[in-house]
Write a structure and sequence with these properties.
Blueprint: E1 3-6, H1 14-23, E2 28-32, H2 33-37, H3 43-52, E3 56-63, H4 71-91, E4 95-99, H5 110-126, E5 130-134, H6 145-155, E6 160-165, H7 166-170, H8 176-180, E7 190-195, H9 205-212, H10 223-232, E8 239-241, H11 246-250, H12 253-270, E9 284-291, H13 295-304, E10 308-313, E11 318-323, E12 326-331, E13 342-349, H14 353-362, E14 380-383, E15 389-393, E16 407-409, E17 421-429, H15 434-443, E18 448-457, E19 460-468, E20 475-480, E21 492-497, H16 501-510, H17 520-529, H18 536-543, E22 546-549, E23 554-559, E24 566-574, H19 585-595
Helix pairs in contact: 1-12, 3-4, 4-5, 5-6, 12-15
The structure holds 3,4-dihydroxybenzoic acid and magnesium ion (MG).
3,4-dihydroxybenzoic acid (DHB) binds near residues 134, 209 and 210.
């Protein structure tokens, strides 16, 4: 189906918005009146620019407060409308959006509303324009889509139809009964469809709409379910994103437009429309790659964690460290000094690496050059929104290129005891890309987003959200930090699973590693919350082990010191615990802030 985006959803000048929409592959736009008013371009120039960019102007909006008015007020409203229709002729837009009135003068009189909308539609038809009437969730008397449809139906005018907006509909309740009325609207009377999602917040609906809308798949509404119903009603017009969002208003238009199109592609797939190649969710983490200007400090930590340097890349300064199935690449290639050591890439074990890459590309993920030396295994890789390189790998699977073929054994043997594997990776996201990152990991990589949690840092608030496979074989925790200058909040980490965190912590110390010290107050509180067997709490206190518990089971974890932007965590999950110790994160962050300055990080 044709796709569109409202100019209000993107930042910048009208020209910047149009360019971004076109580059991201949209077929057209809704032009917001304010964007036109603020533009130095004439309507004819905007029309020409859109044509050059391959964009259709599907809609001009909004026209406000025109229906159910006392006659003395309706006359000037019609005069306003005539001006807009002339302007739309110059712009080349043939559909106008009329929002339900919020005017204190509007009367609670459906017959009057229908009559005036009909007169407005008569005027519009004279200009070759159609009127799409939208119920704002906070409309004075008309605030639901079914009420708007009753008025439009009774007006019975060929140039008058409804505009359905998922936000206004779903913010007022999205039960199947609430949505049943959509099937009663003939498809050809649905003149326009606007799509937006939103996080489920309990707040004033106007504020919610104007500041917190997001692209479908980024919030809590069942936008796909709504789209299915609208399609079943016979709607064939464009699918148009209309998102009012404080973050998008400040972010670069280009990436936002790509995020928007990816959202729409994923939504179309969920609603059963033609879709990109099917997802092939990863089955494990093949490796995590650290980029560092100096391999020594990170090698020391890995050695103390029981990793062995088992292989070296044949053509690049990259070491492979292994312990059990946990594999970490240490790359001393060109690192940016500012970041020091950082987590630069993730290898995902993929059932179909080439298929996964094709899907990623179809969903607009930047495909990375393979940087192949002669004889290297062909590796498929794309960039995540935060710049992390994501490789689709096959490890030791016959018939598929094996990334390890590029490595030469050093002869050192990896330890296998203690169930070591990568439990999860934690990646910090730029503050304005948090929702985009969750959508990317879901749509492109086929991971399932878990609940978003807020974590108090001494110097700000972090948001954190895990994206995982259902079996937990791949767990990536996305976090968005406090101030961009706050290094602690922007550290990334690799969590290693162990079946005995106490033994692993002791072994790390014995091998010369350091563990993050946790304040005594934490353990005093833990003693009040839970009962532990004799001596256990003292062990945790001594080693800096943190503890959490839920209905499923227990979670014990501790942390190494930080190298550059990276630290390691040792975790022990028992009884199917699925959390990440969110309750302990504020204590951990405070301890890391306290430790900064004398860790050499
Ligand atoms: O917030 C508003 O006023 C507004 C305007 C136009 C729309 O299409 C809409 O959904 C909301
Ligand atoms: Mg709308």
């Amino acid at each position: 189906m044709r796709t569109s985006i409202a100019t209000v959803s993107l930042s910048g000048s009208l020209t910047e918005k149009l360019t971004a929409a076109s580059r991201a592959g949209f077929d057209g736009v809704e032009i917001f009146e304010n964007d036109l008013l603020a533009s130095p371009l004439t309507p004819e120039e905007v029309r020409a620019r859109c044509a050059d960019l391959g964009l259709t102007v599907y809609l001009y909006q909004p026209l406000r407060d025109v229906e159910a008015l006392p006659e003395a007020e309706f006359v000037p409203a019609l005069r306003r409308a005539r001006h807009k229709f002339e302007l739309m002729g110059r712009l080349g837009a043939d559909t106008v959006l009329v929002c339900s009135s919020v005017s204190p003068h509007a009367l609670d009189d459906d017959a009057l509303a229908a009559d005036q909308l009909s007169r407005l539609a008569d005027l519009a038809r004279g200009h070759g324009i159609r009127v799409a009437y939208e119920a704002l969730a906070w409309g004075r008397h008309i605030s639901t889509y079914d009420h708007a449809w009753r008025v439009v139906e009774s007006a019975g005018h060929p140039a008058l139809g409804v505009c359905l907006d998922s936000f206004h509909i779903l913010s007022r309740g999205g039960t199947p009964e609430d949505l049943e009325g959509i099937s009663a609207i003939p498809g050809e009377k649905i003149f326009f469809l606007q799509l937006a999602d939103a996080p489920l917040l309990a707040m004033d609906v106007l504020q919610w709409s104007r500041h917190y809308r997001c692209f479908p798949g980024q919030g809590g509404f069942d936008v796909a379910g709504l789209l299915r119903r609208v399609l079943a009603a016979g709607y064939t017009g464009p699918l148009s994103l209309e998102v009012f969002n404080d973050v998008f208003r400040q972010s670069e238009a280009g990436p936002t437009a790509v995020d928007a199109r990816r959202s729409l592609l994923t939504l179309q797939e969920e609603a059963g429309l033609p879709a990109p190649p099917a997802p092939a969710p990863p089955t494990g983490i093949a490796f995590a790659e650290l980029l560092t200007p100096d391999a020594a400090p990170v090698s020391a930590v890995l050695g103390a964690l029981g990793f062995a340097r088992t292989a070296r890349h044949r053509g690049k300064p990259v070491d492979l460290w292994e312990r059990g199935t946990a594999r970490i690449l240490v790359n001393t290639g060109p690192a940016e000094r500012r970041d020091g050591t950082r987590l630069a890439a993730v290898g995902l074990e993929s059932p179909d690496p080439a298929g996964a890459a094709r899907r990623a590309e179809a969903l607009l993920a930047p495909v990375l050059p393979r940087r192949r030396a002669p004889g290297d295994a062909p590796l498929e890789a794309v960039a995540a929104p935060d710049g992390t390189e994501v490789f689709f790998c096959a490890t030791g699977r016959p018939g598929l290129p094996d990334w390890r073929a590029d490595f030469e054994d050093t002869g050192e043997e990896a330890e296998t005891g203690g169930a070591p594997r990568i439990d999860h990776l934690s990646l910090t996201q730029p503050w304005h890309q948090f929702d985009e990152a969750a959508l990317f990991h879901r749509g492109v990589l086929g991971l399932s987003p878990q609940e978003s949690v807020d974590v108090a840092d001494p110097y700000g608030l972090l948001r954190s959200r895990a994206v995982t496979t259902d079996d937990g074989a791949v767990r990536i925790v996305l976090t968005v930090g406090a101030a961009p200058t706050d290094d602690t909040a922007h550290a990334q980490h690799i969590a290693l699973a162990t079946d005995d965190v106490v033994a692993a912590a002791r072994a790390h110390r014995a091998a010369g590693g350091t563990l993050l010290a946790i304040p005594a107050n934490y353990y005093d509180d833990l003693a009040a919350r839970y009962e532990f067997p004799e001596g256990e709490l003292e062990t945790y206190r001594e080693l800096g082990i943190l503890y959490d518990r839920d209905a499923q089971g227990e979670f014990r974890h501790c942390y190494t010191h930080t190298v550059g932007r990276v630290f390691f965590e040792l975790v022990q999950r028992d009884g199917g615990h699925r959390g990440y110790g969110a309750a302990n994160a504020p204590v951990r962050l405070a301890a890391q802030h306290a430790a900064r300055g004398f860790t050499g990080g």
